[in-house]
Amino acid sequence: MTVEMEGPLAAWADGLALELKRQGYAARTVQRLMALTRRLSWRLQQQGISAEDLRPVVIDAALGVVVRTEGGAWGERPRSVPWLVGYLTEIGVMPPGTPPIPQWRRGELVERYRTYVLEERGLAEDTVENYVRAAVAPFLEECGARGLDTLDAGDVTRFVTRRCRHLSYAWSSHTVTGLRSFLRFALVEGLTERSLVAAVPSVARWSGAGIPKFLTQRQVTAMLATCDRRRAIGRRNYAILVLLARLGLRSAEVSGLCLDDINWRAGEIVVRGKGNVAEHLPLPPDVGEAMAAYLKRGRPRREEREVFLRTVAPLRGLTSGGVAEVVRTASERAGVGSFGPHRLRHTAATDMLRHGGSLAEVAQVLRHRNIATTAGYAKVDHLALRGLAMPWPGERR
């Protein structure tokens, strides 16, 4: 395949076209993306950009000009070109570790924090993204302009109270936890002279006050029925839903499941949970059948080791966000609400309790580090709780 192109991207045009084809993009899509790359390369050439000057920010800036001047020609008006940046990084044209930076993740300081918590603290990628989104980027935008070394405890407390006033409990928790993490990083880096972590207030909530939301068996069946198992995507989504509802996995654990993690002879899978801790769980027959059906007659024959793959290009492993979207779409189609994978995790826990499982057994399956976390599910086991209810004064029992 020979692609005619001028400018600093011309030398890698043929390789890029082959890579897009290898990733599973349709021929028409490859032609459209290469046409956009051709316009980008021409724009970069007009700006005097050479191959040595290529960086994600440079490419994004040129993309912005192309979209503004002729965006109508590109339909979806792309805001970034990860397929181009990823390829140039992979072949060494651009230095590694420089992915496109979303608008909310501003500045070199945020990138240094992100590298620190990923490599030094071992946090998961999704956790870091939540921290940056909920706390770090807003804090730097609001309080960092005058310099972190000038901030005091009052500045930190006022930021949290203003920020969390209209947020949900979950996002308020992300905000305070992420801000504490960032302030520890700031102290280690010498950006602040003293620790300001203690100035971050806690999010008010009664311990154990909430009641886990779960689904009835009829509702789970309705969600499973939305999957058209005559099609590959239906078999994939069905296997994901069964895996979530029966074993109570987290979305990141489903997306991170690899082919090598399944031991068909022993009837078990290896689940990598929080902290990258690997644990063995039994593979129930119905879960195994659903996964086998997808692997045999649904999963594309690819070199990727992830069990669940995207169905549209680029054909790579499904992300945790993709797993969440599978659940959300199925719940809406079934008419049982709109929610994410954690609702099915709650459902698996309550179902185990109702079928005679102990809290210790549920904690082991859900991989809770603290039994108090599991104890909350006891509140939905009404039959077991009936024996604990105090009689009404004067009532015979």
What does this structure look like?
- With 397 residues, this protein is mainly α.
- The chain folds into 3 domains: 10-90; 107-199, DNA polymerase, domain 1, CATH 1.10.150.130; 217-383, Intergrase catalytic core (hpI Integrase, Chain A, Orthogonal Bundle).
- It is 52% helix and 3% strand.
- It has helices at residues 13-22, 27-46, 56-70, 82-90, 107-119, 125-143, 153-164, 169-188, 217-225, 232-247, 251-255, 285-297, 320-334, 342-354, 359-366, 371-375, 382-386, and strands at residues 262-263, 268-272, 278-282.
- The chain has a 3-stranded antiparallel sheet, with no helix packed on it.
- Helix 9 crosses helix 13.
- It starts with 12 loop residues before the first helix and ends in an 11-residue tail after the last helix.
- 30% of the residues are buried.
- The model is unreliable at 98-105 and 382-389 (pLDDT under 50).
- Order of helix and strand elements from N to C terminus: HHHHHHHHHHHEEEHHHHHH
The CATH architecture category of the largest domain equals Orthogonal Bundle
Widest sheet: strand order? 1-2-3
Radius of gyration: 25 Å
End-to-end C-alpha gap? 84 Å
Q: Beta fraction of the residues?
A: under 5%
Largest sheet: 3 strands, antiparallel
Anisotropy-based shape: globular
- CATH class of the largest domain reads Mainly Alpha
